Each structure stands twice: as structure tokens, then as C-alpha cells.
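Q: For a teaching handout, I want to show students what a protein-ligand complex looks like in C-alpha cell form. Below are the inputs, and the small molecule is zinc ion. Please produce the holo structure.
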Amino acid sequence: MITSFDKVLEKCPLCSSPKIKPFANWTFKKIPLQYQQCHSCGFIFQNPTYSAASWGKFYKTDYRALYNDDSKPAAEVIKIQNDRADHYSQWLSNLNGKVKSHLDIGSSAGIFLKKIKDSFGVVKSTGVEPGDDYRQFASENGFDIFEDIDQLIESKPEKYDLITLCHVLEHIPDMVDFLKKIRAHLLSENGFLFIEVPNIRGGQSFEIAHPNCFSHKTLNDVLEMAGFKMVRHAEHGMPRTNHKESKIYLSSLSTPSEKQAEKASLASSEYLDSSLNHIRKGFTLDSWTMFWLKYPIKKLLGKFPV
Ligand SMILES: [Zn+2]
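A: Here is the structure, written as C-alpha cells, with zinc ion included.
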């Protein structure tokens, strides 16, 4: 029995506008999901969704079963994490030698922590990982791993020069407050925040555990609201594909900013039109099936996005 959605949002979580409209219906492992879009700032989000209490219950009882993850660091999971760690550390190579401490939130088996430690000259590596088995695995390999960021903050750690959040923010329902907490308690004054999320403009990112969808605009809005400034970003397919037209992921590097936006900025009509008329068309179940039928041919011809 999967936890039922128990929260309906009447206004946009990022700009409080009541102009929210259906964007896409999606079925994830036979569970119907609905996503809505704010017609003021363009944010696309799960609605109905879970209350804070139900998210807790969902992660305790449903998440593992649904995501078919026995939580053991199996060889293929480790391989994917290795490939990702290689890609992230390449993307961040200009920070090599400039950061002395690294906090990876969602640190899983600790592979990215190890990569940065070994190649960047980092002397302190800490992880945050809610999964018991992964936490234990990484702890056994010599890393300090906390169950959540509140536990870490309570331990009053020295602030970190580099904080990384890879495929985490799409899972966090109150992401602006979450990032504000990181900025206030965990990131050093001249520190760097690296975030990677799925890019809604490069592929669908509708999953039961994803209350948030990101475009470059939305990620920029969220960062500005939390007191950060995005200094670099890329839309890409790595490590899955290095095809230059593939934009399934969105990577960003940010630094703390003096300014903090009160709410998400207004989206232009071009932005809204492109998300409604171009993106949504690709997300009906029929066209998603067609996507996979046509995929081998388009791949052969080098035609992306497919
Ligand atoms: Zn909005």
C-alpha cells in the first residue's frame, strides 16, 4: 500500500501566484502523478503531493520497494556512481587545489567523496546519506557520514569549501529553506555549491519521489531565493551520452550572494509558450513510446534531441 498524496497546493511554492494550471499527467510504476505549472514564474511541480509527515512515511515504507533498490552497493550501481564521480570532478576541475573540505549531501556509497579527496587535495570529507546500508558502507571506508543535515549541523562542523548535491534537490519539498540552511550553517564564506538535477527541458523528470522539476530558470530562481548566485551552468547528457544535443541533466556552480530574492522571477511569455507547446507534447505516454521506438534510428543518424 503506497502512501496517498495528502496535500494539494493552491498556489505556486516559489512565487505564491495562484495562476497554476495542469501541465502533465504521468504514470510512475502504475501510480498516477499530476504535475502543474505556475503561469507566473514557470515552475513545474507535483500537485497533489505529500505533506511533510507523509514524505517521512513514504521514504520509510515505500521508497525502497518502488525504486527496486535493495540498498546494497551492487557492482553496477558502483559503476554508475564511478562514471558520475569522474564526470563531476572533471566539470569542477577549476576548483582543484582551491578547496580543502568537501561535503556531499546524498553521498550514497561515498564514491564521489573519495574521488574529490584523492584528486583535489581535500583534507576533510563528510557525507550525508539517509540510506542505512550506504551510510555504513561509506563509514567503513573511513568517511564521516551523517543521516541528515540537521544531525550534521548539531555536530557544529567547521564550514565546508565545497558542498555538492547531485540528484538530491528534485526530492526536497521545501528546497529553498533547505538551501538557506546549507548557506547559513554549512558553507564557508567563499565556498562553492555544486548542484546537478534532471533538466525538464531535456527529458521528463516525473517520478513519485520528485516534487520539483527544474529548468535553468527554475534552478536559478531557487538559488537566488536561498541567497546564492549561479556562476556557471551546463545542460548535458554525461555520463550517459556525450552527444552535444542531449540536455537531460542540468549542472550548476554557485557561490553565496549578498542578495536574496523574495520570490521566483516572472517568466516571459516565450518561456511559458515553449514549455507548454514544445515540452509538454513530448510527455504524453504515446509520444514517449514513440521516442523509444525511434531512438535507435535517430541515434544512428545522430539526431538529437530525439
Ligand atoms: Zn510561480
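A: Two things your students might notice: The pocket of zinc ion is lined by residues 12, 14-15, 17, 38, 40-41, 43, 264 (CB under 6 Å). The chain has a mean pLDDT of 90.
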